[in-house]
Amino acid sequence: MGDDAARQVVDGRTTLGIELGSTRIKAVLVDEDLRPVASGSHEWENEYVDGRWTYPLDAVETGLRAAYADLVDDVERQYGVRPTTFRAAGVSAMMHGYLAFDADGELLVPFRTWRNTSTGPAAERLSAALDFNVPQRWSIAHLAQAVLDDEPHIAQIAGITTLAGYVHRRLTGRDVLGVGDASGLFPIDSAPVESAPGDPGHRDYDAGMLATTQDLLGERVPDLRALLPEVLVAGEEAGALTAEGAAWLDPTGTLEPGVAFCPPEGDAGTGMVATNAVAPRTGNVSVGTSIFAMVVLERPLSTPHEELDVVTTPSGDAVAMVHCNNGASEIAAWARVFARFAEATSARTGGPAVDVDDVYAVLLGEATGEDADPDAGGLLSFNYLAGEPVTGVEDGRPLLLRTPGSRFTLGNLVRSEVHGAFATLAIGMEVLHGEHVAVDRMTAHGGLFRTPGAPQRLLAAALRVPVALEETAGEGGAWGIAVLAAYLEHTDRPLADFLADTVFRGDAVQVAEPDQRDVDGFRDYLDRYRAALPVQDVAAAATRTSAPTDPGEPADGAEPRLSPPARPDPRWRGDPEPAAGAQADPSDHADAARTEKEPTR
Fold this sequence. Notes:
Elements: H1 3-11, E1 15-20, E2 24-30, E3 36-43, E4 46-49, E5 52-54, H2 57-79, E6 88-93, E7 99-101, H3 120-130, H4 139-148, E8 159-161, H5 163-172, E9 176-178, H6 179-182, H7 207-217, H8 224-227, E10 230-232, H9 243-249, E11 265-266, H10 267-274, E12 282-287, E13 291-296, E14 309-312, E15 318-324, H11 329-349, H12 356-367, E16 380-382, E17 399-401, H13 410-434, E18 441-445, H14 454-463, E19 467-469, H15 476-486, H16 495-504, E20 510-512, H17 516-532, H18 534-542, E21 593-596
Parallel strand pairs: 1-6, 6-11, 9-10, 12-18, 18-19
Antiparallel strand pairs: 1-2, 2-3, 4-5, 4-21, 7-8, 12-13, 13-15, 14-15, 16-17, 19-20
Helix pairs in contact: 3-4, 10-15, 11-12, 12-13, 13-14, 13-17, 14-17
């Protein structure tokens, strides 16, 4: 589109979306037709410091600036101009976790990400008290666990938020969250929303659950509601770029203040937008470092399930979420091994270099080729680089198992790894089948689906539903939050209608129907998978290391973080603290720091 795109950039008619993912910060610029016209990115890593997974806030600032600068450079390379303002903008980031600030806006403890699984006692008690599943990675579980652990910073907390909320506040000065991201901080009221045409309605935290949680936390947290950001739904204005925010994002001084911002959202919400899955009976699957499925509900679930989170769409509709800590990382590890083999072979024979996408294409093609059996020939793969709450695994170990009678071929090896990546998700999705939740189609996105064919086909078999790929699904959450920013000017209709009629126009690139032979093969595989799950405990016990692989696993020889006591802990109700001399949590004194590089595909 050339000259037209350049003119839109100069006139400030483009829309900016930024997402902070687990391995990459990405910025996307879209034109008036919501087509991406430029992008920029910055890779980063989580760190394992003092027993917790974290990202330093200076890395957030550095990474955001680098991604934005890369975007600006891309615009200038393509169109010969540099943007100074935008029609609208939005920020998205990985959901959940814990960012606690004092009254001066200073971070009290390092950012605790979604990967940390050290909040089991608090999550268990909250879930029982609220009659609502509160996962370990949710912000309220982190806060409650800090109270249980008598962490000194509790007395200084003036507010908590998510990563997207923090970045949004730095850019606009407003302490708000989009309802989808807020639903991973504290449960949202699920009552129907009454709204007039052009009015997006309003959502808020569940008042009854707030009161119950306040009673549990007691005097240690005098006013829980005052700690939580304001909740906004898609279409509500969430502030504008301040002069300080513009300088924070773009130190060159080129970016002007005044850009309107949509509510900051989590990566789950922007993934739903990027896959046109915000209406009831629609859903999506995201496959990356973690893997999760979202299904928009027509009615509430009959009972809480520990395998399911209940979060919301960016408009506030209830969504059942199956979240698995472990995704495609093990597939990426095998791809690196075979890529190195191809590289070494080419160097020895003088052949051409092999592109990594070609390696994936060959391997995944083998998974559905003649050399692969529907059940992976008796092979069994676990992708557990970390613990996996859905299957009750506290400390994971990646494993490839085979019996003497299994058929060990390249096709079966790869098919087993793909089945293993989808197995935990399928177990969680069985709970939705038991609740008679209807879903017409799941839309897949994530780097694994850059290779067409096998991943989509095998996912359809694992979930027993049609799986679609949208043309824009590969653009990811940065594009999704840009679309939400553009929606600020289209609130005369519901978000689902805006996506269906304007953004997607109802057309999917490709839909894979479940093949019965694949379905039967995966079912046989899953039966073996369940039966072999105890191997995970044995493997973890036999291979304890000083640098734990599980976010909540203490160093070798340390006691567990805090087992649930037999009776209610008085600290939940503001009673006096334990006497001096009580044993400290040994994991607080870990002095080893470790970084983990995760796949970016």
